[in-house]
Automatic annotation (TrEMBL):
Name the UniProt record assigns to this protein: Glycoside hydrolase family 43 protein
Boundaries of every Beta-xylosidase C-terminal Concanavalin A-like domain copy: 306-495
GO molecular function terms listed in the Swiss-Prot or TrEMBL record: hydrolase activity
Record-linked PANTHER family: BETA-XYLOSIDASE, BETA-XYLOSIDASE-RELATED
Amino acid sequence: MSDTGPANPVIPGFHPDPSICRVGDDYYVVCSSFEYFPGVPVFHSRDLVHWTQIGNALDRPSQLRLAADVPSSAGIYAPTLRYHDGRFWLIVTNVSKGGGNLLVTATDPAGPWSDPVRLPGVPGIDPDLAWDEDGTCWCTVAGIAQVRIDPHTGRTYGPPQKLWSGASGAKAPEAPHLYRIGDYWYLLIAVGGTERGHGVAIARGRTPSGPFEPCPANPILTHRSTDHPVQNTGHADLVQAPDGSWWMVLLGVRPGGGTPGWHVLGRETFLAPVTWVDGWPVVGEVALDLPELPWPLVPGPVEEQRDDFDLSELRPLWISVRDRPAEHCTTKERPGWLTLRARGGSLDEPDVVFTGRRQQHLSCRARTLVDPSEGCGGLAVRLDERHHYAIEVSGGEVRVVARVGSLRTVVAAQPVPDGPVVLGLMIGDPPPPHDARTGPDAISFGVEQPDGTLSVLATLDGRYLSTEVAGGFTGRVIGMYAAAGTVHFDWFDYEPISR
C-alpha cells in the first residue's frame, strides 16, 4: 500500500506470469515458480488489491520433482487457473526433463491439490484451459496452437491446430488465454518476449477455435520505448471486479539505476483497469498508485515480519531450491528453531540446502539468529548458483562471500564470539555519486550488536544480482542456508523499508 491508497504491484517481488479467476466474491491468482519448491504460489483476495498467499499448488514430491541438474530458471512455467463445474483447475508446464504439461485440481484453492494428470499430447508451454457451452475443454498453448482435451484423463483429440499468433513475425507469441465474453470468444496473448519489448495483443472470433479477427489497436498494452517506471509489461489475464468493471493482471518489472536499468525483484504482478470500446478491451495506465476504486477495500491479515519457526510446517511463503526433504529442512528437530542440514557445499551447488522468501520491496532489511555450533551457514541473497551474496558464520568467524559469474571471493571477514549470532543485511539506495553507470541498489551485510545496530562488514553493488546481469526469469530470494554440518535458526525477520 502507498500512503495515499492502493498501490502497484499488487503482488510485489518475484511473482511472474499471473493467472486469475473469480469465484463469487473471491479472487485467486497463481504465478510461476521455476526451480523453487514448493511450486505455484496461490493467492486470495476479496478486492483485487490486497492479496494473501494461502498455499502452493505443487507442495509434495508426488506432484513436483526437480532434480539437482534442473537449471535455474527452468522448472515450473506459466500456470493457468480456472474454476469450472465446482472445481478449481490448474494447468502448468514443467520444462524439466520428464516434465511436460500437467493438470491438478482442488475443491479448495488453499489445497490439497490432486496429483497431476499428465498431458503428453499437449505440446509447448503456457497452457490455457477454456470450456465451451457444450462442456468441451480446449487447451491453447504458446505458439499459438489449440487442442481439445479430456481434463480428467489427459487424453487429447486430434493434433494441435494453429490459431492466431499476433502480427506477422511477432516475437514469442505466448501466454494465451481464451474467454467467452458477450457474443465473442476472445484470444488474449503476449507478444514481443518478456523483456523490454513485451506486450499484450488480442483477437476475437465466433467460436473457441476461430477464425480470429485481430484488434485494430494491437498491441493493446506495451511500455516498449517509453520511460514509464514499469517495464516489460505483458503476460496478462482478464477478470471482472466486484462492481462489474473489467481489470487486467499482468507482469511487469521496476528497473532501477542508470543504463540499461536493472530489475532485481523479478517480474511482479500488476493490476490495470480495462474498458470496452466497440467490442474491444482498452487498457488503462499501469500506475504505481492505483486510482480510487469504486468498491470497498478488504485488507487481508497483516503479514508477520518475524517468523519464530514455532509451527510444525513452514508458512507458504518459504521456498527452497528444487526440493525440501524433511531430513534437510525441519522445524521439528529443535522446537522453535529451523534446522538446516547441509548437502551441497555452498550456494554455488545446485543441491544447496536453502530456505528463503522472495524479496518484495526495493528497500528492506533481513535478520536471523544463527546457531552455527554444529556447522557452517548463514544469510543470503540468491538469484541463482552463479549470482548470490551471503554472510556466513562458522568456527568463530563471520565472512561475507560474493559470487558473480565465474568469480567467487570472500569480501570481508572478522572473528565473532562462540555461540549464536544475529546476522543481518540491508538493501537500499546505492551510495553517491550517481551517473549513467550507477546500479539499482546496494546490499550491506553485517553482524548485529547487542544494542540492535548493524555492524557492517561489506556493502556490495546490487546490479550483479539482477536479471540484466544474470539472465533468466526469476528474482531475488532472501533466506538461510547450510553449507556444512547442521545449522539452527531461531528466527527470521524481514522488514520492508520502501515498496
